[in-house]
Every structure is written in C-alpha cells, then in structure tokens.
Hints:
- The chain is 42% helix and 22% strand.
- The protein is α/β, with parallel strands linked by helices.
- The chain has a single domain, classed as Rossmann fold (3-Layer(aba) Sandwich).
- Strands 7-6-5-8-9-10 form a 6-stranded mixed beta sheet, sandwiched between helices. It has a two-stranded antiparallel ribbon with strand order 1-4.
Amino acid sequence: MIYNKDIALKTAELLLKIKAIKLNSKDLFTWASGIKSPIYCDNRITLSYPEIRTFIRQNFVRSIQESSFEPEAIAGVATGGIAQGALVAQELGLPFAYVRSEKKEHGLSNQIEGEVRQGQRIVVVEDLISTGGSSLNAVKALREAGCNIKGMVAIFSYNLFKAEKAFKDAECSLITLTDFDHLVQKALEVGYISDGDVKVLQEFKKSLN
C-alpha cells in the first residue's frame, strides 16, 4: 500500500522531474526478472539530488514511525536499497545491515553484511518492487538468520498482482511512497506522457496481471 496519496503524487512528480522514469514502447527495457517492459524506474539517480534524497528519507522515516513496525534495526536490499536504508537508519539512530542477492563466493561467504541478532525487529528498505522476487529473497535471508521482519518500505511499486500475492504469501507488510498508478496519473498531468502512452502502459500492466 502507499504511505500517503499526496506523498505518492509528489514522489512521482520528483521522479519524473529528474527523469528517473524511462518510457519507450518500441525499444523495451529488460527488468532483473527478465520481463520486457516499456517502462523503467531508476531510483538510484535520486541519490544525486540532495533535496529529493532528503524528501525520500524523511518520508521513509515518517512511514515507519507511523506504522506498527517499531524496528530495532534497518536492513537495505542490495544494491538499490543500501544507500537509502543507511540514510533511514542514521536518522532513526538504528543499526544498519544490508543483504546481498546471494552469498559471497569468497571471504566469509556472507549474504548479510553487518550485524543482526536473533529475534531482532527489522524493517527492510528497497528502492523498487517489480515482481517482488529479489526483495523477498532478502527477507528470507534475514528470517533464516533469526530476524523478526516487521515489514518493508520502498520508493516505488509497479503494482503487479504477482508481487502483491508474493508479499501476502510471505506475510511481509509493504509500504511504498508511490506506485505505478500514481506515476501514470502525474506523468499524464504534467505532459510527460500522452494518452497513447497511458494505453501502452496500462496494457503492459494488464498483460502481467
């Protein structure tokens, strides 16, 4: 679910402003999951804009504080959630760790970098949610380490049914600052896309659901 409708539209506006959203209905983008898509959201670029980075951090913190999560630590999902998670942990004065997609093949063979404890209440920070696979892989690794995952916060979600079902099945609450529907609404409003683009995007989303 989104944290707040007004924040969802403002977040979408900021992502569009810095061209974090890419749209191309002919030369499709390939997501990490292998899905071919006319839309790609690159939230890493937000880190290069201090005001937007601050906006995201503050609203992540507020969404956590207004939830029932009460975390004892923050964990970021590599790689997009590492910097955002560290910023959130710093503001909340909490320990931070991050989770790799898989265990290292050298050194200590860690998948979780940083210290986590058995039973520790953790909120996971992610940059975006597509199918939910990589995000929930991090949740699985933390749970296997004995952590109590209270939920996840992310900047953006594509609102795919597959992801919604995956989070429900994993019993992991998800809060996002914005999502596909609010992004399309704001993009059309500011002239970033046309009515024809909206149709392409909606048909793409429908094909995945």
